[in-house]
Amino acid sequence: MAVFTPVSLNDLTPWIDQFPLGQPLALKGIASGIENSNFFLTTERGEFVLTIFENLSFEQLPFYLKLMHHLADRGVLVPAPIANDQGELIVALHGKPASIVTKLDGKSQMDPQPVHCAAVGAMLARMHLAAVDYPLAQPNLRGLDWWNETTPHVLPFLDDSCAHLLRAEMHFQEAFAVCDTYRQLQRGPVHADLFRNNVMFDGERLTGFFDFYFAGCDTWLFDVAVTVNDWCIALDTGVLDAARVRAMLDAYHAVRPFTDAEQTAWQPMLRAAALRFWLSRLYDFHQPREAEMLTPHDPTHFERILRERIATPAPGLRG
Ligand SMILES: Nc1ncnc2c1ncn2[C@@H]1O[C@H](COP(=O)(O)OP(=O)(O)O)[C@@H](O)[C@H]1O
Ligand SMILES: N[C@@H](CCOP(=O)(O)O)C(=O)O
What's one Pfam family the UniProt record gives for this protein (predicted)? Predict the structure, then answer.
């Protein structure tokens, strides 16, 4: 729904000369963003996406943009950031940080079938492996520390049943995060928000992952759990769809085999991934940011998923 910082084609002259993109031909605001101002940009060299970052700073952005660059360089399907003539991926436009990345073909697949889940699983595993030598590090900023910080801010708004669930799950996750199995899990840069709306498909062909702005270093299994909790469920109940789960996990496993520790950690990790988004949705719902222009996502969706993951064991990682 939003372009927060308007930009016209005129504004890009001569700004765009620092990029190897030729002359700008067309610029169109993208309505669906909620964090940043995004534009489809056509130049003499092709189709790109121009983003003006409304919240992230020049200091915070290199982790995300350089990660995308690193992954694109290694053949993972993600938007490739375009460097300017100084080799910079982030430059100022209208006084804010901005970047240009390649445009992915296709559109989001909001009614995924097993074939789509398999493509996402395989690309996710390739992404994890391709990032092992990524030199920058940043923790997952929406990890356990953030959950601990956020819980007291949302508890006062919850009824007894939800407050009990949140306290009990935090307790459970604190214990899980220090157990031996958890310590053995493989870690690295993860996307951490790989929902249906952050992947493009052209028919059944996956064309790319995008929106890396929740990325950070965390366990690979957390990334898998976040992804399964969105792609492989019935949206009205949160119940896992066995065929889609199997397709995604088998495809991931074929590229990067799951370990025994991951197998043991799978059920608690699915709960962790549900808790993470229940908390952020609760926070956005009850403590909306000033100037927030969108109706917050429904927190009860992830409350349902969390209750369901606690009640019903998910299919195992290895079929
Ligand atoms: N590299 C890209 N290629 C194609 N479309 C993109 C790309 N980046 C963003 N988009 C489009 O812009 C929309 C908003 O992007 P998103 O990253 O979700 O914005 P925000 O971070 O502001 O929420 C996406 O839904 C998608 O349609
Ligand atoms: N996927 C999260 C919210 C993050 O929004 P995005 O559009 O940037 O992916 C949720 O559904 O709560």
Answer: APH
pTM of the predicted model as reported, rounded to 2 decimal places? 0.97
85 Cα to the center of ligand 1, angstroms: 25
Q: How far apart are CA 190 and CA 179, in angstroms?
A: 21
- Among 51, 84, 103, identify where a domain stops: 103
Residue with tokens 């991934």: 273
Same domain assignment for residues 132 and 263: yes
Does the beta carbon of 42 sit less than 6 angstroms from any atom of ligand 2? no
Same domain flag for 189 and 260: yes
Burial label, 3 (beta-carbon count in 10 A; 0-12, 13-18, 19+)? middle
pLDDT tens column, 73-87: 999 999 999 999 999
Q: Is residue 317 part of a domain?
A: no
Which residues fall within 8 angstroms of residue 282, CB to CB, at 6 or more apart? 150, 154, 157, 158, 299
Contact 33, 96 (CB under 8 A): no
Alpha carbon distance 211, 188 (integer Å): 18
User: Is the C-beta atom of 3 inside 6 A of ligand 1?
Assistant: no
ipTM over the 0.90 cut-off:
yes
